[in-house]
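Continuing from the previous page of notes. For each protein in this section, the sequence appears first, followed by its structure tokens. Read the first protein now.
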Amino acid sequence: MQAARNKGRIMYEDHHVMLFQDLSTDLHKKRRLFDDVKQRLRALKIDYGFIYPAKFRVFHEGKPHLFADPSSVDSFIKKLDT
């Protein structure tokens, strides 16, 4: 997936090919648990993203921080407010 992302547009016999990760319903539900903290991070203009399958990564002051659950992200955000 990363190679396809780096390549950009992929063509095969004059047809545009699109690749998507296959996320299970269970994995999608786990990622949805982070929706609240994602909204708060957006408001603070802090970059974030997922590492497959469901590790949450926050970029703050040039450093990545990894989290396994939304409550630990919430604690991190609260520390930023103080």
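Done with the first. The second protein uses the same format. Note its length before scrolling.
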Amino acid sequence: MAARKARKPKHQKSEYPTLPGQLGYLNSYYCPVCGKHLFSAYDKDMKKDREDGYYFHVSNDFNYCSKCGQLLDLDEWKRKEEPPEAAEELKFDD
């Protein structure tokens, strides 16, 4: 069986802005195969250059459509984190 190629979700922007001047347009993303809604975010949340550093991310474990199983290319919405050092010891508070 051939491996499935990762595909970018389909994008749809709302027709009108929500709370003009504050949140911007709602951006919705759908599976390119079955059309299942994957996630939505406002323009303001999707900007990567915000001063406070907060912007929209999907889970690093989110890779497939839950309805049809299509492999999704979601790298541009995933947080770029460095893995912890292998020698680093984790400590838990009691």
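What the second structure shows: Residues 1-78 form one domain. Strands lie at 10-13, 26-30, 37-42. We return to this in next week's lecture.
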